[in-house]
Amino acid sequence: MSLSATFRRILGLLKPHTARMVVALCAMVVTAATEPAVAGMMKLLLDKGFSETRSFSLWMVPVFVVGIFVIRGLSTFTTTYLMSSVSGLLMSTLRQQMFSRLLDVPLSYYRDNSTGKVISGWSPSPWARLSPLSFASPPSGSSV
C-alpha cells in the first residue's frame, strides 16, 4: 500500500471525528492568540505602567495575567484531550479492522505460521500505520 493510499484511508477513517478536530483546531488558535496577548500586556505595563498618568488601574494587571493563563490552560487542555481522543478512536477502529481481517485469513496461513509470528506481525501495525502522523503517538503505559 503506497503512502498516499494509506493517508487517504486514514483520512476516510477520520471523517466521523471532524467536529472534534475542528474544535481542537479552534482551541489551538485560542492558545496561539494568548501568546502575543501576554507580550502586549507587558509592553503596555512597561511603557505606561510606571508613569504618573496611567490609562488603567494597576490592580487590573494581575487579573489580566491570571485570566490569560486560565484561558491558555483551558484551550491547551481542550486541544490535548480532543486530539488524544481522536487518536485513540482511530486506533480502536484500525484494530477492529485488523481483527476482522485476521478472522478472514485462510486456515492455511495459521497452519504455515507460528502463533508468535502471527501476533508479532499484526500487533504493532496500527501504530506503524499512524507513525507518519505527528498527532498520533503511542501513549506510554497504555493498552489502547
How would you portray this structure in words?
With 144 residues, the protein is mainly α. The protein is rod-shaped, with a radius of gyration of 24 Å. Helix 2 runs antiparallel to helix 3. It contains six helices and no strands. The chain has one domain.
Per-chain topology:
Layout: H1 3-14, H2 18-48, H3 60-104, H4 107-112, H5 115-122, H6 125-130
Helix pairs in contact: 2-3
Task: Based on the model shown, name its key terms.
mainly alpha, rod-shaped, 144 residues, 75% helix, disordered C terminus
Tell me the number of helical segments per DSSP (H or I, 4 or more residues long). Answer: 6
Number of strands: 0
Q: Which percent bin holds the helix content?
A: over 70%
Proportion of strand residues: under 5%
In the predicted model, the low-confidence regions spanning at least 5 consecutive residues are: 133-144
Please state the CA-atom Rg, rounded to the nearest Å. 24 Å
Mean pLDDT: 81
Overall 3D shape: rod-shaped
| Main β sheet profile | none
Describe this structure in a few short sentences.
The protein has helices at 3-14, 18-48, 60-104, 107-112, 115-122, 125-130. The protein is an all-alpha fold and 144 residues long.
